[in-house]
Amino acid sequence: MTLLGLRPTAQTAIDTDRDCSSQRVVAIPPEGRVGIDLYWLPLGAGGNFVRFNGRVYEAIKARLDRRPVCDLYHSALQVFVPEGRYVVENTPVVDDHGRERGVVIEGSVGARWAGRLRMFRYEMRRWRDGVIPDIGEAVDSPRRLSGDLLDARRLLELMPQMPALVWGRDELGAGEMWNSNSMIAWLIARTGLDVDSIRPPASGRAPGWHAGVVAATRESTMAGSSTVSRSSPASMSSGTRLGLPSGVSLPREAKSIQSGVRQRVATSDRPSTPIR
Fold it and tell me: Is the residue at 165 inside a domain?
């Protein structure tokens, strides 16, 4: 068992990639300016080309799965901490000034070799005081995932640890492609929130969500196996205590969580250091 498994789950309200005809939605209102809010944006909001392709894809997928056609959604987060508000979202790389948008990782789209070209790269943003361009079109949003400051800090600090898998490919063998929803699901699961209870809006699907849950679960399982083989939590590396595979170290900007983890290891592995 990983330390994440010892934490109580927070209330959430969403689902993933299941038959949209039988979904139940429970909206939880925001409780303040500290915590994590989820937004569901219609796929292709603000752009007819992406929306059209999404509808074609869903029509084919629904026919193959012998189920009703669903609306497709892209997810994004707003995270509130005393230092400010952060937008967490996966988008295409638009220029070489990612630092200004708080980009923490980039990855390839379609194939790793294609990532040499900017048009085939994506970025994951941790953008302080940033914007979600199509937030006005969000459906049943925002959804409050947590009002806990420690959850908010943990999610932000975990972002550099996210796997930069190829967008649009199923490298995990999860049964669906890795995409923006996968990254949001990974973050929610690794933060320790109840990702399995999360549902998109009624009659909607979030393709890729399950792939993120699979990636997070495998990391937790590997970390759990590593924990059993070690003598005590105090002897573990910071990467292992965060649920990363043994031997994977933390980037410099994420190592600030180590002291917080050490102080709370008996009851929780949520960090308490500020995001910069």
Answer: yes
Instruction: Give me the half-sphere count of Cα atoms (radius 13 Å) on the Cβ side of residue 116.
Output: 2
Does residue 271 sit within a domain? no
276 within a domain of the structure (yes/no): no
Taking only the tens of pLDDT, the chain with its 276 residues reads 333 333 333 333 334 444 554 443 333 334 458 999 999 999 866 555 456 566 676 667 767 778 887 889 999 999 999 999 999 999 999 999 999 999 999 999 999 999 999 999 999 999 999 999 889 999 999 999 999 999 999 999 999 999 999 999 999 999 999 999 999 999 999 999 999 889 999 888 999 999 999 999 998 887 776 655 554 444 444 344 344 444 444 444 444 434 433 333 333 344 444 455
Range of the domain at 91: 3-264
- Asked if residue 38 is part of any domain, the answer here is yes
pTM metric for this prediction:
0.70
DSSP sequence for 192-261: T--GGGB--STTEE-TTHHHHHHHHHHHHHHHHHHHHTSS-GGGS-HHHHTTPPTTPPPPGGGTTHHHHH
- The amino acid at residue 195 is V
Domain count within the chain:
1
Rounded Cα gap, residues 92 and 107, in angstroms: 10
